[in-house]
Write a structure and sequence with these properties.
Layout (H helix, E strand, L loop, with lengths): L1 H6 L3 E5 L5 E6 L2 H13 L4 H22 L2 H18 L7 H12 L3 H20 L10 H22 L3 H26 L1
Antiparallel strand pairs: 1-2
Helix pairs in contact: 2-6, 3-5, 3-6, 3-7, 3-8, 4-5, 4-7, 5-6, 7-8
């Protein structure tokens, strides 16, 4: 078992004074890569991703609304503004994804932040696997998806800024369902 962890870069070991193995260095951040690769190879479905994000992100926004500072509210507003500006131009910045990463950071919980980043990577992978080019797509379904993303994130950010955790949580649940339905439409149109 230890050798497997060594091979995957999780630990470094050496022989101890009494002849046994001693872990001299651990690398927990590479563990997230192992989880991502495992999930990637198992081909997550949109439904699985939706269920997971709905559970985690609804609780995440609740926590953020309880902990957010005035300075962080400004950072959240700037992220939403960048996303809105992106919608009004041809330039793709990834500001929509930055919103979720920022939520992880604003939770002040390193585990939640890592999980949220992992979910984003899985989302990108799932979108790629279904050829759902949500950022570059030009059809009506793509436009609806991008518009719903901006509007939904704005509503959630406003509730977080108002420090209304329960309402932010409920809005995230509604938002996740809406985005899932739109992704399913994109998936259908990509076939």
């Amino acid at each position: 078992a230890l050798q497997t962890l060594v091979v995957y870069g999780q630990i470094e070991k050496r022989r101890g004074a009494k002849g046994g193995s001693v872990v001299i260095n651990e690398n927990p951040s590479s563990g997230i890569e192992l989880v991502f690769e495992d999930l990637k190879s198992s081909r997550c479905t949109l439904q699985e991703l939706h269920e997971t994000r709905k559970i985690i992100e609804s609780r995440l926004v609740e926590i953020v609304a309880q902990r957010i500072t005035e300075k962080e509210i400004q950072e959240l507003k700037e992220t939403i503004q960048r996303h809105e500006n992106q919608m009004n131009s041809d330039k793709i910045t990834g500001a929509g994804w930055q919103f979720y990463s920022l939520l992880g950071k604003l939770s002040k919980n390193k585990i939640l932040a890592k999980i949220e980043d992992l979910l984003l990577r899985i989302l990108i992978d799932v979108e790629d696997s279904f050829n759902l080019d949500v950022l570059q797509g030009q059809g009506e379904e793509h436009r609806q998806y991008k518009l719903a993303a901006v509007e939904g994130q704005r509503k959630i950010a406003e509730l977080i800024a108002a420090k209304q955790p329960e309402k932010a949580k409920q809005q995230m649940l509604i938002f996740r369902d809406r985005m899932h339905q739109l992704l399913l439409k994109l998936e259908e149109s990509a076939k």
